[in-house]
Structure formats: C-alpha cells, structure tokens
Design brief:
Structural class of chain A: mainly alpha
Radius of gyration of chain A: 20 Å
Oligomer: homodimer
Number of domains of chain A: 1
Number of helices of chain A: 16
Shape of chain A: globular
Distance between the termini of chain A: 21 Å
Chain lengths: 348, 348
C-alpha cells in the first residue's frame, strides 16, 4: 500500500468536508455579527491554507484497523475526523501565540492577522485566544454529532495531555538551558506531540469502531514512539530543512530558545567554545542566516545531528515493532506502517 | 423560598465537590511532572478562592425544574454541575488575559501569578492560555462522566456563543467610542453574559432532566434578559460598587476602555464638556480615584445611571414574565425567581 497516495486522496476529501463545515459556520455567523462572519472566514482560510491532514487520516485509519467502512460510513468518518483536524488548528493558534510565531502554513499566524489589521499586538493575541477556543468548540460540535461519549473522553484526554506537554515545555524555558536533559525533552515530545498528533487521533478512531482495551494499548505503544520520532524529525527539519517546503522560517526554535533534542545533545557533546556560541544564540530574536549556518555546523560536527537521526529511527522501529503481532485489519495496519515510514522520510 | 439561603447551602456542597475534584487531579499530576502538580494546585486555589457558584446552582435548578432528585441523584447533580463552574473558570482565566486584569476574586489573576514568579509578562499570559484550556478539558471530563451527548452539545453551544460575544466585544474596542450603540452593547451582553452565566447552565441542567424544546425555549426567554440585567448590574457595581465586596478594582471598565451601557448612555446624554471628559478618561490606565469620582458624577447627573438601573429592572421583569405560565416544578421555579431578585439587588 502506498500510504502517501492514500493520505493524498483522503486529504482531498477531508479538505472538501472542512470547506463545507466552515461554509455552514460562515452562514450561521451572518445572523450574529459582521465580526463573527469575518472570523469564521479567517478560520476557514487558516484551516484550508495548508496541512497534510495526518491527524484526521490517522483517526480514519484507527477506525479501519477494527472495522470496515462502506461508502456511507466512510463519509461519516471523514466528517467525524474533522474533530482531529479542528483540534490541531485549536492547538496551532494558541501555540503560535505562546511561541510568538509569525508564519504558519506559508501565511501569517492567526494573531498576526489581527495584530497587523489594527496595529495592536495585544489585540491580535486576544483575538487568537478566542479563535483557538472557537476551534475547540467547533471540534466538540463534531464530536456531539458523532454522538459518542467515549470519543468525547478520548478527545479531552488527548487535549489535557497536550496541554500538560505545553506547560512542561514552557517551564523548561525557565530552567538553565544546560540543565535541561534528554529525558525532559522526550517527556515534552511524548505529552505534546505524540498525544495530539498520533495517539489521540488513532485512539479516537479506534474508539468509534468499538476497539477494546488491549488494542487501544497496542495503538498507544505504536503512537508514543512514533510521535517522539515525528517531533525529532520536526526539530531537524526546523533547523536543517527548506523554508519553502516547510512554510515557516528555519531556525525558529533557536529564536524562541526552545530546547530540542538536537540542542540538548549538542550542548552535551560540543567543545566548550561551540557550546558557548550555541548558548548565546538560543533565544536570539534577530539571529541571522549566517549564524544559523554556524549553529548547523556545530550541531553536525559534534554528531548531535546523527544522534537525533538515529534516535528517530530507533523510535520508528519501536513503533513498528508494537504493530508486528497486532491482529488489525490489513487496510488500517498497512496505513499505519506506511505513515511511519513517511514521517521519518518527509522533507516538510 | 429563600433563594440566597439555598444558593449558600449549595455553594458549600459545590465547593467541597470542587475541592475533591482538584485533589484527584493533583494526585494524577504527580505521575506527570512537578509543573503539572503546581498548575493543578494553582487552579484549585483559583477555583476555590471565591465565586458565588451561581452557574452550577442554576444548572442544578435547571434540572430541578423538570425532575425530582433523590439523595443519590442530588450528589451526582452536584458533581455534574462542576462542568458549569469549570467553564466559568476557563472563561475568566482567558478573559483576564484579554482584559489585562490584575485582580480576580480578591487575588491575582492567573496570568499575574506566573508573570510575577518569573518576571515575564508574555510567559504569564502563555501559561494562562494553557491553564484556561486545561479548565475547559476538565469541564469536558465531567461532561463525559455525566455521559450525555445532549449535555455536550449544550456546553459547546454555550461556549461558542460566549466566544462570539467576546469577539464582538473586542471588535467594539476598535470602533470609535461615540459610534458604539446601545444595540451593540446589548448584543455583547446577550452573547457573552447571558449565554454562559444563565442560559447555558440552566439549559445544561434541563437537558440532563430530559426537558423538551418548549421548556428549553421558556428557559431561554427567562435567561437572556436576566443575563443582560446581570451584566448591566455588573457594570454599575464595577463603577459605583465597593472594591472590597467586589474583590476587584473599581473603574476597571474605564481603564480598559470598555463601552458599557452606562458609558453609551452618558455619551449620548451628557453635556459636550462632560462628554469630552468621559472620552478622554476611557482607556486611561493610570486613572485616579478622584477622576473616577468625577466620572461617577457625570454618569449620575446626566441620568445614565438611572437609565441603566431602569433598563436592568425592566429586563428582570421581562425575565420573570417568561416564567409566569411555565409548568415547572415548584422547587426549580422558586429558585429561578429568587435568583432573579438577588442578581438585581446584589452588592457584589
């Protein structure tokens, strides 16, 4: 099975369902206020502007690991999978405020849109807080439509785990950088990334198919290392990737002073001089591309890049191993294996 | 029936349930991270520090309008009513970031707690965004426990309405102040205050008792004007009330440049000179108590205060009228009538 092709096909259908969903919301907003119409239009654009739709596709295949879906059910599943996509948008909008990011999916972040319009930075952040909360409400509207209390439980379990991950990550920025450990970073990756990127969506889908505890456990054992690998790969791309393909600026983790596995390992392994350079660059808002080039060389030379790549590969292996003896439907299992390979080989 | 006495009795039981709920969460957080334990402790304190528990009490009595509750059911109801209280905390935490408020329920706002600790204003706001999102997740945990998809629908319908109200209110701050109309203000009051203070909690409770469409409509007809009256009264207290009883500084609406009915009417009715003074005071962060005294006199002299009081009274009458022919259980109906009187006569 070509998981990428399947992902691409689902992306089209999910995008179309997402567009329909927001068109209805825009319509409803007409009766409320012009500002309500405007924010729904902006949310529609923000949601449709990009995104690989990995989360809803995982939700759909979490279902397909346990149950077949005829055409009618398949259509419903696509609709319900919007819960995972809307959740992603909710987190991105709030996360971008926390990180003070400017670019997302090749366009301005949500707070930047409203800040620019009124030349008021606090105002932009305020509207983004509300907009993120709205996305969360919309995701829950979909869950209510699906009519499953079990799905509701899994959604908010995922949300709370992600929120804990966020918090732990935020608090790490207040710890002296060279005291942050690999364990700290992997904990953030597990709570934040694994939860809402892989584990939550998969289990949400599996729940809809009525999967039992034993199978849910297998999905977690697959999802947690995969999410950690995904995050490590994300950090590598964010430092070494192609800005155009990524849709966001390279080196933003450095600018934000975010401590990734790449950085922790480099601080551990680099020479004293390089370590100093790295420390002074972290959190530097006006870092130049030349300085980023220097950091890349440091991270590469001390073999932190290799270490991170190897760690990501090991995690992928661990994830795949969790699936080995799983008695899942072939359509679902093949997709999970394919997506694991994709996530480690992607360039965007 | 003495609704205030009933409210007081329920407050005790709700506070105790709220404390138990957070103690369990603090316990769970032990397995996650020390920062997780800390935020749950801070949330417990924030939730228990004050609050009249009007929303959960309304939820409970929304139920009691339609169904009797034995001791077991009553205990469950108190537990489920935490959804309304946790939602309130979610909104307060985010709202305080939007409004840059410093005091809440006689203590520092959530963002102020973390800002002060690290002397970092953006960091404090970031943690408050996450903390508000957490409260929302916790509220939904309770809803999942109640096991009602209908309750889920009503919760998020209420949340979305409140979020729209927030947005409309935020956008109003960008409109030239003397172009803001009474209609604008009443729309904010309806979407923001009525929805999550009165209408949402009541309907959430009624839904759990299986109330039908006709009765839900009566509750809305009661709740919307009551919420509007509540907000007008809140604005009056915020301007003319006693800081100690309120637990927040007097005149904060002025400092934030918030356009309340009091202000809209004063701008319409005051002399040109007074109008100028009012306009120049709005949004003034360092306004003195003497200046606030002057504004009080202006608002009083031009009869805007009387107008607002009368409007609130009319709204209360309208609310009560909606109940007149309602075939509700006496216990529920009496409480609704009593609470309507309380809300208009309160001093805090």
């Amino acid at each position: 099975m070509d998981a990428i092709k399947v992902l691409g096909e689902y992306k089209k259908r999910i995008d179309s369902a997402l567009g329909d969903f927001f068109d209805k919301k825009i319509n409803e907003a007409e009766a409320i206020d012009s500002s309500a119409v405007e924010i729904m239009k902006n949310l529609k654009d923000f949601n449709l502007r990009g995104g690989k739709r990995i989360r809803p596709a995982l939700m759909i295949h979490g279902y397909k690991c346990f149950s077949d879906a005829d055409d009618k059910k398949d259509k419903d599943l696509i609709r319900f999978s919007l819960a995972a996509e809307l959740m992603e948008g909710f987190f991105l909008i709030h996360d971008d405020v926390l990180d003070q990011d400017e670019l997302r999916r090749g366009g301005p972040t949500f707070h930047a849109i409203y800040r620019e319009r009124f030349n008021d930075s606090h105002f932009g952040e305020g509207v983004a807080i509300v907009a993120g909360d709205m996305q969360n409400s919309l995701a829950n509207e979909i869950i209510a439509e699906a009519g499953s209390v079990e799905l509701l439980k899994q959604y908010h379990k995922t949300a709370l785990r992600t929120e804990y991950g966020w918090l732990i990550e935020s608090m790490l920025t207040k710890k002296p950088i060279d005291e942050v450990t690999e364990e700290d970073v992997m904990k953030v990756n597990m709570y934040k990334t694994s939860a809402y990127t892989i584990e939550g969506p998969l289990i949400m889908g599996a729940t809809l198919a009525g999967a039992g505890e034993k199978n849910i456990k297998i999905l977690s054992d697959f999802a947690i290392p995969l999410g950690q690998a995904f995050q490590i790969q994300d950090d590598i791309l964010g430092m070494f990737g192609d800005e155009k393909k990524l849709g966001k600026p390279v080196g933003s983790d450095i600018r934000e002073g975010k401590v990734t596995l790449l950085i922790v390992k480099a601080l551990e392994k680099a020479s004293e001089e390089d370590k100093k350079e790295l420390l002074s660059a972290l959190g530097k808002k006006d870092i130049t591309i030349e300085e980023i080039e220097r950091l890349r060389k440091i991270i590469n030379d001390c073999s932190s890049l290799d270490y991170s790549k190897r760690m990501a590969e090991e995690m992928i292996e661990k994830a795949k191993k969790a699936l080995e003896n799983a008695d899942f439907r072939k359509e679902g299992k093949d997709f999970l294996e394919g997506i694991a390979d994709f996530l480690i080989n992607r360039e965007y």
